[in-house]
Amino acid sequence: MSVRRAGRGTNLGLLVLLVSALLTGGLAFANGGRSAWLTLAAHGAVGLGLVVLAPWKSVISTRGLRRSRPGSATSIALAVLIVLTIVSGVGHATGLWANRLAMQLHVAAALLSIPLAIWHVLARRVRPRRSDLSRRTLLRAATVAGGSLAVFGAVEGLVRVTGLPGADRRATGSYERGSFEPEEMPVTQWLDDSPPSIHVGVWRLEVRTASGDRTWSYDDLLEFDDRLRATLDCTGGWFAHQDWSGVRLDRLLGDVEEVRSVVAVSATGFSRRFPISDVSEMLLATRVGGRPLSMGHGYPARIVAPGRRGFWWVKWVVRVDASTTPWWWQSPFPLS
């Protein structure tokens, strides 16, 4: 095989792996349910597939740099971002670098690499050919896939055998922080969302339904004592088991015969739309661990949504709307 053909195959493989890494990463970032480990394992294997192809790509890159082609600096920046993404991801998975900075760097580097990867594809186009589906090509792809899974399995095995902190992470990849100790639970929020200034004496919860609107004060909500033990699993890489109490969401909504979704709206404008089938298992919490929520954790009231990642757990709720719009009619991730 010619060097040029080998380089083309390697670039095509890297392109497929980069796209797959972004897709599986998005799924792993969003998945807080029982299948979380499958998406996390897929993301890990795909990411390590980039490591498997690294020796071949390094030969191609070295040859390209010697020719001083236009855009070399951009290609180097893309390579650096990919390395940062892999290093921070492996560091977080093993527990050797298991903090919020590692996860933030992992996500930031991956997102910043997207426009550079698009530029790389446009500048050095890899056009599909019939030979891309040849038996030889498919065997090579299977070898890379098998190698990626083997490396992933080896890393996971090493983590468990050596007792690294990564052995104790949840199926989502998160680490325990402050379970049943609310004051030890980290305070985080989504992107540019930040704790508002709320005076509970004038704060009101507005519930809008087809049968009419109703307003609840904080004291009104304190009369409810529905309880739920649920796990808050933040996309920042941590989780905490807590005992929450407040009012079950279906109690506030009443008749939901024609309703398809429920929207929880924060005092900051942040909102998420939930399927109506979930509301009987969701809580509008006013307390955690038997004590009022802190401002950082959503005082005076927040959503508790079991099985969903932290960005669904809307804080500082001021309004709940019953809607005929399907729950999936929203961005998969909040945009701000």
SSE order, one letter for each helix or strand: HHHHHEEEHEEHEEEEEE
Rounded to the nearest angstrom, the distance between the terminal CA atoms is 49 Å
Estimated share of beta-strand residues: 15-25%
* Outline type: elongated
* Total count of domains: 2
Major sheet attributes: 6 strands, mixed
Continuous helix count: 7
Rg = 24 Å
Count of individual beta strands: 11
What low-confidence regions span 5 or more consecutive residues with pLDDT below 50? none
Mean pLDDT level: 88
- Structural class by secondary-structure content: alpha+beta
Helix proportion range: 40-55%
Any overview of this molecule?
With 336 residues, this protein is of the alpha+beta class. The chain folds into two domains: 3-173, no CATH class; 180-323, Oxidoreductase, molybdopterin-binding domain (Sulfite Oxidase, Chain A, domain 2). Helices cover 43% and strands 19% of the residues. It has helices at residues 3-30, 36-66, 72-94, 100-123, 135-162, 218-222, 249-253, and strands at residues 175-176, 204-209, 212-217, 226-234, 238-248, 261-266, 271-275, 283-288, 291-292, 302-304, 317-323. A hairpin with a 4-residue loop joins strand 6 (261-266) and strand 7. The relative contact order is 0.11.
Strand and helix layout:
Layout: H1 3-30, H2 36-66, H3 72-94, H4 100-123, H5 135-162, E1 175-176, E2 204-209, E3 212-217, H6 218-222, E4 226-234, E5 238-248, H7 249-253, E6 261-266, E7 271-275, E8 283-288, E9 291-292, E10 302-304, E11 317-323
Parallel strand pairs: 1-5, 2-11
Antiparallel strand pairs: 2-3, 4-5, 5-8, 6-7, 6-11, 8-9, 8-10
